Structures are given as structure tokens and as C-alpha cells.
Amino acid sequence: MSDEHDPKKKSSRYDPSRRKFLKGVGVAGAGAALADHFISADTKTSAAESVTTGEPIAGTVSIALDVNGARRNVSVEPRTTLLNALRNDLEPAVTGPKLVCDMGTCGACTVLMDGKNVYSCLVLAVDAVGKKLTTVEGFGSPENLSAVQRAFVEHDGLMCGFCTPGFVTTISAYLKKNPSPTLDEVREACKGNFCRCGTYPRVFEAALAAAKARPAV
User: Fold this and answer.
1) pLDDT of 86-120, one tens digit each?
2) For an engineered disulfide with 109, which of 47, 118, 120, 163 has Cβ 3.0 to 4.6 Å away?
């Protein structure tokens, strides 16, 4: 008699063993318990000590971030990105940098770290300790706009607004290095920022107008 006509053989050939299934579940459960043991939410470690000693960090760490000239204390998991720490863990939150692609391709989360552009979605918060961080909020306020912010308003350099903080941050930093750029130089400086609405021409116009409105940027 062939296997296809023997129900016992068919069952053993195609159906997973209940014993094997339960054994697999047990192993998975043990792995999860072990992970919980090593990553305890109650564990607190000094980020500064870890950086000094090279010891791995687990659980929650208490760190201080220098954001727009102010010392901001916050507790985060070691895996927390700078972007998430700014938006979700600081109180009050710093929401200028936007979470869009979360993979370092759009530039909406751009901040300055010691004067250099970085994608805050790719930087760990613990790696930003001791660095001077500047977000779009650090360039001006609604009552006192910077030249770049004002130029974006006057030249309608924004549409949905998600990319705007990244462009303002990038252009503000660039104009400090090159106060009299050409259009091609502005375009090159902005190549790390992406606008889904396609407002690039007005963004570039705003950058050139801000350059002429020196000294404030």
C-alpha cells in the first residue's frame, strides 16, 4: 500500500510532532526570559562611566544633553536614537526635528552636533553626550525669526512642512561657512535633504535671500 493511502504514514510525514512543537515553544520562552534578565527596565547605568570604561550599557541610562545651549537631563534606553530622545523623552519635548524615513535618507531630522550636520535618527542619544546640539529651535523663535527662517516664510519655501526644519538647519549651518553662495553651491549643500512636495526652487530662493540678509542667519 502506498503512503498516500495510509493515514498513519501521511500524518507522521506531513504533520509536525506535538512534542517537537511544544519543545520549540519552550526554547523560545526560555530565550525571551533570558533576554528580559539581561535587559532589565529597572537597571540604571551612568553613560559617562560606560564611555570611560568601555563596559556595555543595559537597561536605562541617565544622561545630560546640551540642546540649544541648555543642559537637558533625560533617562533613555541605550538603543534610543537622539531623535527619539529629543521628541519623546525630553520634557518639554524638542519637536523641530521630524521623524519621517527613520533611516537617514530624507534629512527631516537634521540637527547640528558640534556644528556639523547629522541625521539624528542615526545617532544614539548616549553618543551625543558631551556634544553641543542645535536643532531648528536654536536658530530663532516665532517672535524673533532668523534670516533663514524669515526667508522661508517670505519666499514660501515650505508646503507640508515636514522637511522644513531639516532644510533650515542645513542652510543655516552652510551660510556660516559660505555667506555668499551661488545657486549651485546651495543645491549641493542641500543634497542630503529631501522634499516630497517638490518645493526645491523656493527653498533655494530662500537660501540665497537669507545670504543677502546678513549678518543674521
Assistant:
1) 999 999 999 999 999 999 999 999 999 999 999 99
2) 120
